[in-house]
Specification:
Oligomer: homodimer
Order of helices and strands of chain A: HHEEEHEHHHEHEEEHEEEEHEEHEHEH
CATH superfamily of the largest domain in chain A: Zn peptidases
Strand content of chain A: 15-25%
Number of helices of chain A: 12
Chain lengths: 409, 409
Amino acid sequence: MRQNLRVNGARLWSRLQRLAEEGARPDGGVCRLALSDADKAGRDLVVQWMRELGLTVTIDAIGNVVGVRRGEEDGAPVMIGSHIDTVATGGRYDGALGVLGGLEVIETLNDAGVVTKRPLAVAFFTNEEGARFQPDMFGSLVFTGAMALETALTSVSIDGRKAGEELKRIGYGGDAPVGKPNVHAYVELHVEQGPTLEAEGFAIGAVEGVQGISWTEFTLTGQANHAGTTPMRMRHDAGYVAAAIAVHARRIADELGGDQVATVGALTLSPNLVNVVAERALMTIDLRNTDNERLKQAEARLMSFAVKAAAGEGVTLEARSLARFDPVPFAPHLVARVEAIAKAFDLPVKRLPSGAGHDAQMLAAICPACMIFTPSAGGISHNIAEYTKPEDIAAGADVLLRLVTELAE
Amino acid sequence: MRQNLRVNGARLWSRLQRLAEEGARPDGGVCRLALSDADKAGRDLVVQWMRELGLTVTIDAIGNVVGVRRGEEDGAPVMIGSHIDTVATGGRYDGALGVLGGLEVIETLNDAGVVTKRPLAVAFFTNEEGARFQPDMFGSLVFTGAMALETALTSVSIDGRKAGEELKRIGYGGDAPVGKPNVHAYVELHVEQGPTLEAEGFAIGAVEGVQGISWTEFTLTGQANHAGTTPMRMRHDAGYVAAAIAVHARRIADELGGDQVATVGALTLSPNLVNVVAERALMTIDLRNTDNERLKQAEARLMSFAVKAAAGEGVTLEARSLARFDPVPFAPHLVARVEAIAKAFDLPVKRLPSGAGHDAQMLAAICPACMIFTPSAGGISHNIAEYTKPEDIAAGADVLLRLVTELAE
């Protein structure tokens, strides 16, 4: 019986569109920055839905909201979660899909009269995006005990407000305890935010883990010189070294292969004039891999090349780490189940890494966790044009339903 | 007798320092923008010196000033020239050396009682730098007939004034004819403005010509994408293509060798963020060579690579020529004489191109012309720190003296 359960895709789609009205932008996108008035309106709506579905709602001191559905037995719930905050030019699906997908799972089980052995929970975490407060994902960080509550409460927003004050103002500073989570397993349904599934014709992504991230800033200092009067052999061209490093970063990604990506997204020359050899180049290198050993290899090869290239040109190199996070692998047995369930539903499925961060990576530290990806049209996210087809959303929610009911037995 | 004539280096040095007082900057540099009050003061001083030395001064309609010393015979004079305008953060020697070096030649001949067969002339041309009016060198362009007087007179300065009005205001709109120059030969003594002579231990540069210049702007348009979620094979990274072109520009210069230089001085990415693949790159490529065929080769190789690199990445390429000037070779027999005279004086001499533009390239269109370079400390010019040692300045003026007395026989 439970094997045949399917979600109501139209109902889930309708909830997604309804939530998008809170913080709706005139251009069709959504601006629901964490702990803003729009976020409060979105929270109120989701909490109302949770209560209508019979969930017991608790709110903790950093504003994370958890709605619990009782099981046949007590104990740690199987949690479905994500976030409902957005970036300023956000879309309708990033985050919202995981939360409202969870509600759709609950409603489907309610309609079918199914009570799972373990409790189920649907959660949304505060400030996943980090678009209003730093750091991003402080809700799930505090929830799992990886960050002190006080640190998050005193975070100051881009508009100069403390998170603690904003929580109080919108009425979402609750009394549920933080830092001692009791979760049996965690599953997050999310849009891919990348182009792979759509481009390759897959409906479901079985997410193997979140890529480790290494951000480095290089400051190269050479000598400003006249582009006409300075022979090539006498140059100390910071711009040339920066370009050589950018080209080499691509080569490293190509040679390491697999999930390795490398991006030089920011590069600024000075004085930045057509006829002056650049004295200074400021550049960033973003390296990511799900395999920490390969990520370290990429970092080492990049640094070795940069040091050599700078020395060869008589340019000084200063390197500064801007961010470094180890990869987070998801529970292999859960990844395998996502894959198997999708296949059972005849949904084309691909294992892939997540290139972006998600609350699931915090939950992975305290319980078996995994993610299910649905395709993003054109790979576009953090953009008002973000879109996922209704049938893909329904398919993702079906996989979510099957997986959490299995886990709750 | 004339073979043994030497300039008075101390007197020349003293005039250079005195002229630097007009438009002096508090930091030791000079700001004597064309047709400004400071330029007027500098002009008045040089004209006064010309008259004190017995020269007959004429001023033409674009403000070029020519002081003529009679020869034994009438006819076209051998002209020594340069400019006295500076950039806003200029030094004391760029331009001034050629003009005051000319006056020193005159005074040395006066002192020795030498009258040359042909007349001699010392000239300074208006707005060589182009720091206040566009285009640069419009004085010598009008003088030689390469530009219509009206075009130059209606040029509007960076502070919104017409050149014609400024000439009238400072009293340097004269009545000498333009566009029909009568010059037997032209010699310009100038600081190198590059590092080669100093770095390689030469006192004199025998300038073979002015490099041809090719400036191209590339606009590369790809697709902004998430640096984590977009696999390498799906990228359209405008920044990567720009970097590859910059690296290839260096390779072209290395492979062509000789005088070929290549510079990517300006490169701007957008959105220029650490974690976003660049959608757009705007870059300039500055190619220069004294050999026009090789310069064309460099241009063709660059364009061929850029087109291929952009296509390979699925990035569109727009190319726009910002400037293109053919090389200007100086009269070979004059270049050879500079070299020979320097050697006769036991001055280490090197043939080299000029990477910067000079009035001499305009004069080269109407008479045999050449330039003599003196070393620039650290290759620095267009900078308050511009410096050339007194003994190098005296050596350059000695070569100038010998060459013009030869040419005036």
